[in-house]
Amino acid sequence: MLEFNSNPSAYGRQPISEQSIVDVLAEKGSLTGRDIAEHFGLDYYEDRQAIFHLWAVCTSSVIISRKTVGARYLRIDKDTGKLEITPSVPREFADFTAWGLDAEKVASKAEQVLGYHSMVSKGKKALAKRIVKGCGNKLAGSYQPNSLESSICCLLVGDVAYGMSSDFRREVDGEYVKGSDIDIVIIHSDTAPAAMINALDGAIYNQKWRALKQDREELDYIIKSIGHVRKQAVMATPRDSVASKIILESVLIYGSQSLYETVKGIAMSSGVAEKLHAMAGQAILLREAEEKRLLEELVGKHSAQQQQIASQKSS
User: I want to staple 110 with a disulfide (CB 3.0 to 4.6 A). Which of 50, 58, 67, 179 is the partner?
Assistant: First the structure.
């Protein structure tokens, strides 16, 4: 049985052995990584080093079975351009992987996990649609019939669009929210009246705070013109690359289907998809190397510690 030293001085906890995890799984059945962590009194956000060690113990085990669900997709740091795969190692362990002793039961648990994320994502998507449609209906009377709806496309992006959002309680700027953000990108035609777009911005901003206070949901949004989309499709900066990437990953929730197709066509014709595919390939290799390094590092520490203990006993 493996037992990794979880560096108790770093977070005030004792090492967690493979056997102790096996005992928990034997008693409780298949669990997510977050369930396992909570059993040992670990907090996903506060005890991150311990979460990595739990992942290493479970991943290295020949006794514990696992099944991971959901998608892995490219993440680009908007400031540095660093390429990563999301979910991260600890989040994939905690929220998207079922662990257990019986492969068939692990697969069943994994389906439950996928169903949970799908259900939460559908709820967040429905809220996003209600908000943007409500704002659109509210402003419709102030402009020509259908002028707003035909001049914009509202896109849902991020975890919710992928069906991978969660509602685990977390804190944002002193406020508790339900898990994953709801991220929306609003693109308007170059000829849309500025007053109309400004009014839409104000209406959604008000709904952003209402969603936070009433629904405990964090709503983030950005508004840009289709002309700006064309400039960003060149992908000259990391921020441009991020902006182009999320358009290809998006889901239309309100507005003009024709404008949406035009927006996606800009990205496709500019070679964005090919560039992102190459970036994703690089990110996958980096992720594989990161996981290998982490496992070797943790296993190496364990071996060194065992040799030190043996040496002390023999002296």
Answer: 67
